Amino acid sequence: MGIWDPANECMSREELEQLQLERLQATLHRAYKNVSCYRNKFNELKIDPDDVQSLSDLSKLPFTTKDDLRLNYPYGMFAVPLREVVRIHSSSGTTGKPTVVGYTRNDIKTWSNLMARVHTAAGITHDDVVQIAFGYGMFTGAFGHHYGAEIIGASVIPMGGGNTEKQIMIMQDYRSTVLVSTPSYAITIADRMEQLGVDSKSLSLKFGLFGGEPWSESMRTEIESRLGISATDNYGLSEVIGPGVAGECEYKCGMHIFEDVFIPEIIDPETCELLPPGSVGELVITTITKEAFPMIRYRTRDITSLDYSKCDCGRTLVRMKKTMGRSDDMLIIKGVNVFPSQIEDVLVAIDGCEPHYQLVIDRKNSADFIEIQIEVTENIFFDEMRLQRAFIDKVQKKIESVVGVSVGIKLVEPKSIPRFEGKASRVIDKRHS
Ligand code: DLL
Q1: Residues in contact with 309: Cβ distance below 8 Å, sequence separation at least 6, in sequence order
Q2: Which of 88, 114, 134, 323, when mutated, tests ligand 1's pocket best, judged by the most ligand atoms within 8 Å of its CB?
Q3: Of 32, 206, 383, 416, which is the most exposed, with the fewest CB atoms less than 10 Å away?
């Protein structure tokens, strides 16, 4: 498969590090000069941008967090005057004010180029018809994918999120070859197709580019077989650029991070210490080419690890593993750390479980208790009690062996768990209500 930007995606590590250092130094100077939040933080630690003489000096710099963005709402983190900003997006904060991000004309070019890399790595070419099923609006997902697909010359259908039946009709009539959405929406579409009696083989669909939320390998297998496509993962976040930070190639062995534009680090989320290559921890990203909204050591809260080994696709860029989820989504059940994605991975692989589930956390006799509500296929739901009991036992044992805490299982009727058109929200925590 092709590589969109071989000069930047296949550099030797030595060349790449030299480029990163030059770009980092330029970014630090610009941020220090133009953004008071960075200037104040650097001054407090008595750090001058000139103190960064090597990439390893990056670890001396302070982190940037979502709180910094909130405190500087709306435009305080911008490094250019508003007249140079051509686009504003914001992230979907669940509490308080959203965070606002800006792009100059050059930033939009950078973003489009990054997204062209994501699409090319996933196998998309100018012959494809790309149906974007993300909401166009403040969310960065739709615009980013739209620009990338358009730049490589594919035919873009800006369908937007939701309206599942229409999505399917457009897929049939316009012969879409690529679906871009969240993985959970891909499942919603597959379900609806099944209900409508639409066979995926009758469609022209070949590829799915999914991102915006964690999803397990089992979910990938499920989506690939139900939609008859090759599904790749792509990652990003609005604070850093939107989608386009990293994407999988055809080998699907981690998402290549575009290191000529972003420097990734992995830290221990508790101690904030930098961890050695290969360790699992929180991803921290520094942008090194962005003009309007440079981010220095932004704490993403996403838990992953980095793999520097060679990839057969020819890209020399480091790969990040599928994220386990965000450190703030991690559940602490009886003192044990549990990621919803671990539970999903087990569930989706079990025959008879639908990929629709909800985790309800509560306190029972003053101890944490997690109940997993799982939608099951019709035949299991209506099976006799004895068989249902055996099924529950099997699921319970499998999950407990993976997460290491006891869990309760409740089978629920087909189609009773909410479906998602955007990012899924599967955890109901009743402990503090
Ligand atoms: O979700 C950007 C995006 C859109 C990426 C479409 C990929 C596709 P935000 O709304 O700011 O931006 O949310 C960012 O979503 O910190 C992760 O926790 C999560 N996330 C995004 N992509 C993935 C992924 C967009 N592939 C937050 N796997 C991030 C796991 C993901 N989590």
Answers
A1: none
A2: 323
A3: 416
Find tokens 């994220």 and name the residue: 323
Q: Where are the domains of the chain?
A: 1-326, 331-429
Instruction: Using pLDDT thresholds of 50, 70 and 90, give the confidence band for residue 329.
Output: confident
Q: What is the mean pLDDT of the chain?
A: 95
Q: Which fold has domain 1-326?
A: Rossmann fold (3.40.50)
Closest ligand 1 atom to 238 CA? 11
Closest residue CA from atom 1 of ligand 1: 212
Region for 321 from its dihedrals, namely left if φ exceeds 0, alpha if ψ lies in -120 to 50, beta otherwise: beta
Alpha helices in 285-413 (DSSP H): 340-349, 378-381, 385-403
For residue 185, the CA-to-ligand 1 centroid distance in Å is 14
Whether 92 lines ligand 1, by a CB cut-off of 6 Å, is yes
Of the residues 235, 255, 298, which should be mutated to test ligand 1's pocket, given the most ligand atoms within 8 Å of the CB? Answer: 235
Question: Does the C-beta of 300 come closer than 6 Å to ligand 1?
Answer: yes
β-partners of residue 284 are 265, 299
Our mutation pick for probing the ligand 1 site, out of 213, 320, 321, counting the most ligand atoms within 8 A of Cβ, is 213
- Report how far ligand 1's centroid is from the alpha carbon of 302 (Å): 9
Three-state SS sequence of 5-17: CHHHHCCCHHHHH
Residue 179 has pLDDT above 80, yes or no: yes
Domain 1-326 and domain 331-429, same fold? Reply is no
pLDDT tens sequence across 134-154: 999 999 999 999 999 999 999
Give CA–CA dist 244/114, Å, rounded. Answer: 5
- Note the pTM of the prediction, 2 decimals: 0.95
E strand segments, 23-128? 85-91, 99-104
Query: What CATH fold (topology level) applies to the domain 331-429?
Result: GMP Synthetase; Chain A, domain 3 (3.30.300)
Distance, CA of 177 to CA of 155 (rounded, Å): 10
Centre a 10 Å sphere on the Cβ of residue 162 and count the other Cβ atoms it contains: 14
| Tokens matching residue 403 | 């997460």
**d(Cα 77, Cα 38) in Å, to the nearest integer?**
8
CA of 127 to the centre of ligand 1 (A): 27
Helices (H) and strands (E) in the chain, counts: 12, 21
Paired residues of 427 in beta bridges: 359
